[in-house]
């Protein structure tokens, strides 16, 4: 957890990993959208997105675990040994720490994956040329359909901070975090909640949780902050991390079930006749059951009739 937090900090707030400058075509219409303003002026600002992806899953897990603990009597009898045979951990607290800890780890991991993709690819936002403000005359760019590919970052005369931020579009970090949060929460609701009397309660709740993440992606595209491909890549990244953690780390939110004791087969069962045929103990069976010290010195003698029935 500490490693993911430190790595996410260096990706987000330091220059440890410089952003790759991909280059651009002169007069590229896909990058010439108007500048929408700073991120805080968005209809889905980062503060709101980060607050929702932190608060909604936390509240949902707390409510679900409290309800399950107080309404399921078997939960009160569960004990988890922490040290030796004397120290026990409350099952309610254990499950809360487990699920919320894994969720926090996945949240920072999603941030690292999104930032790493943005740093490595350097894909531009739809408003890149508006903040880059290249001098087409100096660059020798001809009006369309003339095309010149510019690879020099010095061609941008705009604010360097805005230019760097405009080169971090793929994948969309807000879309990735939103998708991770709702995927984790929806799987928790589906696998843990038990609602009787209505088959549409859980699907309605899950759709209500999915709607904000979809709206975040739509807002990012509508405000020219990301392309559709950036948003879809963010959704896939966050959803994949959530599915992996739920299925492989927390085992579908289920507690480990203690293996049942194997029942030893009863011994000395009486021999039951089959199809009305007489049953005679075989000498081989006697040898397999007898102890080594109890084997008599005299050889075993069986009649021919006993041998016939033993074969049967």
Automatic annotation (TrEMBL):
One GO MF term attached to the UniProt entry: phosphatidate phosphatase activity
An annotated GO cellular component: plasma membrane
SMART domains associated with the record: acidPPc (SM00014)
Entry-linked InterPro entries: PAP-like (IPR043216), PAP2/HPO (IPR000326), PAP2/HPO_sf (IPR036938)
Keyword Cell inner membrane in annotation: no
Chief localization: membrane
One Gene Ontology term from the biological process aspect of the record: phospholipid dephosphorylation
Subcellular location: Cell membrane
Membrane topology: Multi-pass membrane protein
Domain Phosphatidic acid phosphatase type 2/haloperoxidase: 100-246
Spans traversing the lipid bilayer: 47-71, 100-120, 175-193, 205-222, 234-253
Keywords: Cell membrane, Membrane, Transmembrane, Transmembrane helix
Family the entry assigns: Belongs to the PA-phosphatase related phosphoesterase family.
Protein name, UniProt field: Phospholipid phosphatase-related protein type 5
């Amino acid at each position: 957890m500490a490693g993911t937090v430190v790595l996410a900090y260096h990706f987000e707030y330091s220059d440890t990993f410089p952003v790759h400058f991909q280059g651009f075509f002169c007069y590229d219409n896909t990058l010439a959208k108007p500048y929408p303003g700073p991120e805080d002026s968005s209809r889905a600002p980062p503060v709101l997105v980060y607050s929702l992806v932190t608060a909604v899953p936390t509240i949902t897990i707390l409510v679900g675990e409290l309800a399950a603990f107080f309404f399921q009597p078997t939960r009160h009898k569960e004990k988890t040994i922490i040290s030796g045979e004397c120290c026990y951990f409350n099952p309610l607290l254990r499950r809360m720490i487990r699920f919320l800890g894994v969720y926090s780890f996945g949240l920072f991991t999603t941030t690292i994956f999104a930032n790493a993709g943005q740093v490595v690819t350097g894909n531009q936002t739809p408003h890149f040329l508006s903040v880059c403000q290249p001098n087409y005359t100096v660059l020798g760019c001809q009006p369309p359909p003339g095309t010149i590919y510019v690879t020099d970052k010095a061609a941008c005369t705009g604010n360097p901070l805005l230019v760097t931020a405009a080169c971090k579009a793929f994948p969309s970090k807000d879309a990735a975090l939103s998708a991770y949060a709702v995927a984790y929460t929806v799987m928790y609701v589906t696998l843990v909640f038990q609602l009787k009397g209505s088959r549409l309660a859980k699907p309605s709740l899950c759709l209500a949780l999915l709607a904000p993440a979809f709206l975040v992606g739509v807002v990012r595209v509508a405000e020219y902050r990301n392309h559709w491909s950036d948003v879809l890549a963010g959704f896939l990244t966050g959803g994949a991390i959530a599915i992996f953690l739920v299925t492989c780390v927390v085992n579908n939110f289920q507690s480990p079930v203690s293996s049942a004791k194997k029942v030893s087969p009863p011994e000395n069962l009486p021999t039951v006749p089959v199809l009305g045929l007489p049953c005679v103990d075989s000498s081989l069976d006697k040898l397999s059951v007898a102890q080594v010290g109890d084997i008599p010195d005299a050889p075993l003698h069986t009649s021919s009739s006993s041998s016939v029935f033993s074969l049967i």
